[in-house]
Amino acid sequence: MKLSARNKMPGTVTAIDKGAVNATVLIDLGGGTTVTAMITNASVEELGLEVGKTAYAIVKASDVIVGSD
Asked: What is the phi/psi pair of residue 47, to 5°?
């Protein structure tokens, strides 16, 4: 897999919660860190995602928003 994104984090799919159109996918990156992504149900199928399968959280963004109370 060749990508221009620098932040490629391998992990294990721990949950897939499908809705009518989109699915929430949780990826355990290890060390107590989990990434949650919202993707289409079609993408879940095309990628062959299943709980227990290795997947990559790939982040490419020009802006990162940080909030605090």
From this structure: -85, -10
pLDDT band at 65 (very low <50, low <70, confident <90, very high): confident
27-36 long-range contacts, CB within 8 A, separation 24+: 27/55, 27/56, 27/57, 29/57, 35/9, 35/11
pTM: 0.84
Q: What whole-number distance in Å separates Cα of residue 13 and Cα of residue 9?
A: 12
Residue 47 has pLDDT above 90, yes or no: yes
Count of H helices and E strands in the chain? 1, 4
